[in-house]
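Example S7 (structure tokens).
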């Protein structure tokens, strides 16, 4: 019989590690936090080396492994690769005995479930599109799906700037996406974790009748499965105020303000900022 009594289950108060090049992974952290408000988190933003999306596969892999080593040094119990570009280069499902969650697998699965006309658009960085990971993964779930990919490199600096609903962003979105709209896709994968911040502008191009896939939610479901199967243990003691540490490789007051603004509506945890080196 499955062991259901949470009071008696093992507790693990080690933080969950999450990393991205910058602010984008905060959209993933936000979804995971919404589901698991008692957990402690350490978020690593590699702001000194952002963006990843214009870098080579070898460099992205090297940075990502350094980030994971840093998170392990902070004694995390699991690692969420909250960056699609990094997810194309991290095929491991475990790193130094910790489970690793990437954002491409769950996002692809969700897209394959949501599409009704089998036409899916993937919006991502140049590096992610070049790796072809979304096309391969989506087709592995449902080979008849046609996948149309579009790199949107200017979206990352717009999201970092916090121009989440701005006429300039609307214009850039229109320029990148108008051709895709004419192809009649019914599902749009936000294949870069920065892009959910620009959802309003993206929706203005596609209209309300397309399904948007945001992998933050999909990853949270995977983590939930692993909590339920006891592959991972929850932090059980709700009376201990949870902590969120945001570690940046380059200090940025702008990042601190923007990330606090994004996380405050979903969590009352204390947020602590620090500057770290991962090399
Ligand atoms: N947020 C990242 C992604 O999901 C990368 C953005 C960048 O650094 O180019 O791909």
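Recovered sequence:
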């Amino acid at each position: 019989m499955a062991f259901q009594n949470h009071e008696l289950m093992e507790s693990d108060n080690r933080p969950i590690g999450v990393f991205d090049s910058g602010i984008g992974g905060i959209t993933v952290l936000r979804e995971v936090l919404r589901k698991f408000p008692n957990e402690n988190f350490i978020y690593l933003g590699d702001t000194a080396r952002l963006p990843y999306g214009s870098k080579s596969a070898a460099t992205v892999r090297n940075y990502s492994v350094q980030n994971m080593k840093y998170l392990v040094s902070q004694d995390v119990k699991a690692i969420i690769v909250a960056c699609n570009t990094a997810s194309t280069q991290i095929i491991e499902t475990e790193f130094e005995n910790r489970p690793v969650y990437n954002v491409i697998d769950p996002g692809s699965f969700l897209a394959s479930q949501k599409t009704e006309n089998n036409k899916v658009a993937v919006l991502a960085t140049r590096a992610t599109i070049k790796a072809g990971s979304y096309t391969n993964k989506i087709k592995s779930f449902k080979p008849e799906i046609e996948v149309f990919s579009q790199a949107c490199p200017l979206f990352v600096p717009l999201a970092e700037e916090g121009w989440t609903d701005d006429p300039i962003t609307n214009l850039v979105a229109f320029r990148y996406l108008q051709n895709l709209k004419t192809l009649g896709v019914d599902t749009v994968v936000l294949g870069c974790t920065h892009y959910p911040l620009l959802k309003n502008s993206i929706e203005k191009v596609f209209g309300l009748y397309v399904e948007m896939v945001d992998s933050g939610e999909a990853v949270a479901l995977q983590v939930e499965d692993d909590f339920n199967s006891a592959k991972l243990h929850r932090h059980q003691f709700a009376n201990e105020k949870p902590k969120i540490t945001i570690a940046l490789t380059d200090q940025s007051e702008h990042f601190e303000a923007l990330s606090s603004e994004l996380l405050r509506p979903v969590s009352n945890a204390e947020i602590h900022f620090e500057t770290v080196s991962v090399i």
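Notes on this example. Residues 2 and 216 are 28 Å apart (CA to CA).
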